[in-house]
Amino acid sequence: MTDFPVVESVPALRARLKDFRNKGEKIALVPTMGALHDGHLSLVQEARRHAERVVVTIFVNPAQFGPSEDFAKYPRTLPSDLEKLASVQADLCFAPTMEAVYPPGFSTRVEVDGPARADLEDRFRPTHFCGVATVVAKLLNQAQADVAVFGEKDYQQLLVIQRLARDLDIATEILGAPTLREADGLAMSSRNVYLSKAERAAAPALYAALNEAARLIGAGEAIEATLARASAALGEAGFLPDYIEARHAKTLARIAGRRDGPIRLLAAARLGATRLIDNLAVTHEA
Ligand SMILES: Nc1ncnc2c1ncn2[C@@H]1O[C@H](COP(=O)(O)OP(=O)(O)OP(=O)(O)O)[C@@H](O)[C@H]1O
Ligand SMILES: CC(C)(CO)[C@@H](O)C(=O)[O-]
Ligand code: BAL
Known about the structure:
Blueprint: E1 6-7, H1 10-22, E2 27-32, H2 38-48, E3 53-58, H3 78-87, E4 92-94, H4 98-101, H5 121-124, H6 128-143, E5 147-151, H7 155-167, E6 173-177, H8 197-202, H9 205-218, H10 223-236, E7 240-248, E8 263-271, E9 274-281
């Protein structure tokens, strides 16, 4: 058992943060839902580059799960999460109770338009970004950190949170950090533990399809035909694709050709009962 410091209430969090601030230390926040893996730990390391103190939040937020999604079975592994946070010298874990986030009578929702209505994740998870925006607005207000770091793995989410912070004048700077991958290319994700052995063997096909499509589009191949082939390749690997699309990297607007870029490819696909997402930048060949 580690004795890594954890606080569960907003007053306890603020008391710790006040100590840091009184010493003139900058604070970085890394919001997560726990079941920590090396991708999360890379966010802690990125956060450390911007602040003396790194606070990791762990809260499985019911409001961002749809009624038929995996809230109940989402992995909850707090003791091993704390060991991992100790191993990367994070400073504090904020693991709020349900009441600390959603007190009785809670009546407020944060709705984001723009990148949250891009017809990507929102098409398949229509209440998801309202739940994310509401909890992230709360976490940002609770901590009032100097910076907060989010993964590019959840690319649409990152743009939604940047828009939320800009629109609501939240002073915390929102930073993105690159996706950490397994050696075979699969993006690390807490949901990878759901994959059977055979599904885990097939799973790198998602990154492979994105990678190949990004290479071809970067080399000037037609976008729509390339994405149709990528989708077919995913099907052959055993995935049921929800979408694989090329969008403007900053706005998620649809694009007609590669000169409308910068382009980001975004995909979501189901492998058995598990839904995986991934995305990749298109870099143009000289
Ligand atoms: N492979 C990764 N590399 C970098 N950041 C990541 C990676 N996976 C997740 N993150 C980031 O970690 C933060 C917390 O994400 P979360 O706890 O939902 O983890 P997750 O692995 O994405 O889980 P899920 O399987 O639920 O999507 C988010 O900002 C997310 O983008
Ligand atoms: C940002 C977040 C912690 C909000 O619950 C979650 O959506 C996640 O883990 O990406
Ligand atoms: N990683 C984003 C959180 C979610 O899928 O609910």
